[in-house]
Every structure is written in structure tokens, then in C-alpha cells.
Design brief:
Helix content: over 70%
Number of strands: 0
Radius of gyration: 26 Å
Distance between the termini: 21 Å
Length: about 375
């Protein structure tokens, strides 16, 4: 039974080794080789348990730097004080294509997850009301489908921030950011393709906000109302909003002036939400550059803070603009301007030097603890 348990543990280690991140495959293979070379059954079992724990942490806990260093010492691979972990990508090996592919994969997952969560929340609130009014299953399904453009206008910028901050956190954990700082304009070389991709996403979001979203809002309003209804500022395309604002400006009276302001606020909002993709990409990258070892916890915390602050600024700016306290342009763009300043400060003035990124080698590691047991 003892021998069978040892064989099972070895098989588990070999299978889990395939789940390790690509940059650490060579490191994990060395650990498996050392496990196979251990003859003593007790030591072999202890090492196998430690290896299973380490690989699980490596796969599930954001590829933390301390775990990578622990693995390196366990399999006898030395690591200098100021260097990336063995097998980590550097500025010379991390191509633009690889960098963008990482972002594309994470963006797809983040965007799909956020959209699904918000759509589910919308369904929980709206479906009971529709069912109470006798709506059919087809009407309920169509209403959820028509709500997607509105939800996507929010989740696209959110997904961009989460994606960029998470990918750059990983670059900080595996030593790529430290390598970039040691090169002239290395950080800017990492940022340039990411901001370019964010600009493409912003352009697509602008088309969706100005063309797809208002048409979907109009159809959704008619579906919920049970027939045609007068177009509002949220159900007008960008050209219709401009024409309506011009007509309202030519009319007299406070009511006409308020309508004109509402139309202009909606115009600026569509552009500001699209531009937020680039701004949030810069803030996400800057946060990871300033705190390269923050991990997933920092990504989640920063996301909650940034999204809450941005939403509050947009809502507050819209309210002030509707009351004609500030101009529609200022009301809708002040959140972007504030975050842009923060992003530039974080990205172009990173704290510390490259020597601080590697950090001191920890004295206690996962595998050494497991072996001690």
C-alpha cells in the first residue's frame, strides 16, 4: 500500500506539472526529475507532497514571485538577487505578438465574465416585472438581448482595465518589468502596443456607443412599452443628437435650453466612455508598474476603487451638467482627465529601481516547509 501511494503521488506531480505556467515549464520539469531520483520512500513522499502544493500555488495564486523562487531553490537552480526567475520572459524574448496575445486571451475572459454577471443582475431585476405583465418567453429573451449593448458599454472599459493590470502584474512577477526598466525606454516599449490595442478597442466601442447602443435602446423601450414611443436622448444616434441639440438651441425658454444640454451631455458621454478604454489601460499598466508584486488582490482592489470612482464621477458630472453648473464637456470628461493624470504619473514615474523589483529572497518557502514535515 505504501508503494502504491508513492506511485500515485508521483503520477499526480507529473500531471500537475503540465498545468504550470509556460515560463516555468523547465523549472517544474527539473523538480519532477529530482523527485524521480529520490530513493528514500519517506523523503520521496514528503517531496511529492511539497511539489504538489507548490505547483498548485503556482497555477492558482497569480504566479507569485516567492513561489517561483522557492521552486528554484528546491530543484537546485540558483537565482541572483536582482534577476528574473529562471525561464521568465525578458524584453528580448517577449515579442509584441506574444504580449498582445496574452492581453487578448485575458480580455476575452474578463469581458465575457463581467458581461454575464451584469446581465444576470439585470435579468434578476427585470424578468420578474416582465413576467408579472404577462410577457412571453420570447419577449423576455429579446429584452435581455437588447440590453447587451448598454451593458457592453460599461464592461468593455472595465475589462480593459482588469486585463492590462493583470497581465502587467504577471510581467512584474516574472521579472519582465525589471528587465524593461534596465533598458532605455523599456517600459514605453511595453506600453506602446497595449495602448495601441486599447485605441482599437476604443474605436470599436465608439461605433457601438454611437450607432448600435441607441438603436438597441429604442427597440428595448418600444418592447417594454408595448408599442412606438417618442425617442429620448438615450435612443438617438450621434447625428440625431446633434440635430436635436441644434434645434433646441435655436428655441427660446429654459426648457429648450435644458433639452439642448441633455443632448450635448449624451454626445460627450458616448465619446468619453469610449476614450475611457485608453485611459483605463494606462492606469492599469501604471498600477502594475508601481506595484509589480501586488498580485491578484491588488488587481481586484484597484478595479473596485477605479470603477467606483469613475462611475461616481460620471454620474456626478452628468448631474452637474444637466443643472448647467458646468459644461457638458467638463462634466463628461473630468473623470477621464483625472484618471489620465494618475496613469501618466504611475507609468512614467515608477517608484524604486529595478533592483527593488526582485526583492530579497525569502527565508521560508513552500517546498522547504513541506519537506520539513
Amino acid at each position: 500500500m505504501r508503494q502504491r501511494a508513492q506511485v500515485t503521488l508521483c503520477h499526480i506531480v507529473e500531471r500537475l506539472a503540465k498545468l504550470a505556467p509556460a515560463p516555468q515549464h523547465e523549472l517544474v520539469r527539473g523538480m519532477v526529475a529530482e523527485l524521480n531520483a529520490i530513493a528514500d520512500p519517506a523523503e520521496r513522499t514528503s517531496f511529492a507532497l511539497g511539489a504538489i502544493t507548490a505547483i498548485a500555488h503556482l497555477s492558482l495564486r497569480g504566479y507569485s514571485r516567492s513561489t517561483l523562487q522557492a521552486l528554484g531553490r528546491c530543484v537546485g537552480i540558483g537565482q541572483p538577487f536582482d534577476s528574473a526567475p529562471p525561464g521568465a520572459p525578458s524584453m528580448s524574448t517577449l515579442t509584441t505578438r506574444l504580449l498582445l496575445r496574452r492581453h487578448a486571451t485575458n480580455f476575452t475572459f474578463s469581458f465575457a465574465t463581467l458581461t454575464a454577471v451584469i446581465l444576470a443582475n439585470y435579468a434578476v431585476k427585470q424578468v420578474p416585472n416582465l413576467m408579472a405583465n404577462g410577457a412571453s418567453a420570447g419577449v423576455i429573451t429579446e429584452s435581455l438581448f437588447l440590453a447587451l449593448p448598454f451593458i457592453m458599454a460599461l464592461t468593455i472599459p472595465m475589462a480593459v482595465f482588469i486585463t492590462v493590470s493583470f497581465v502587467f502584474m504577471r510581467l512584474g512577477a516574472d521579472g519582465t518589468l525589471a528587465s524593461a526598466r534596465r533598458q532605455r525606454n523599456g517600459i514605453r516599449r511595453l506600453l506602446a502596443p497595449v495602448l495601441g490595442a486599447a485605441a482599437v478597442i476604443a474605436s470599436l466601442a465608439l461605433v457601438a456607443n454611437t450607432q448600435l447602443l441607441p438603436r438597441a435602446n429604442d427597440q428595448l423601450a418600444q418592447l417594454l412599452a408595448g408599442g412606438p414611443r417618442e425617442a429620448s436622448d438615450r435612443s438617438m444616434t450621434i447625428n440625431q443628437l446633434r440635430e436635436a441639440a441644434l434645434i433646441a438651441r435655436t428655441a427660446n425658454g429654459a426648457e429648450a435650453s435644458a433639452r439642448a444640454v441633455a443632448y450635448e451631455v449624451e454626445i460627450q458621454k458616448k465619446f468619453a466612455l469610449a476614450a475611457a478604454c485608453m485611459v483605463l489601460a494606462l492606469v492599469g499598466a501604471g498600477t502594475a508598474i508601481r506595484f509589480p508584486r501586488g498580485g491578484v488582490g491588488l488587481v481586484i482592489s484597484a478595479s473596485l476603487i477605479v470603477f467606483s470612482a469613475y462611475y461616481a464621477a460620471i454620474v456626478g458630472g452628468e448631474a452637474l451638467a444637466d443643472r448647467q453648473v458646468i459644461s457638458p464637456f467638463v462634466g463628461m470628461w473630468m473623470a477621464n482627465a483625472f484618471l489620465l493624470g494618475i496613469g501618466l504619473l504611475l507609468a512614467w514615474r515608477p517608484s524604486g529601481s529595478s533592483s527593488n523589483d526582485a526583492g530579497p529572497i525569502e527565508q521560508t518557502t513552500l517546498l522547504s516547509t513541506a519537506n520539513a514535515r
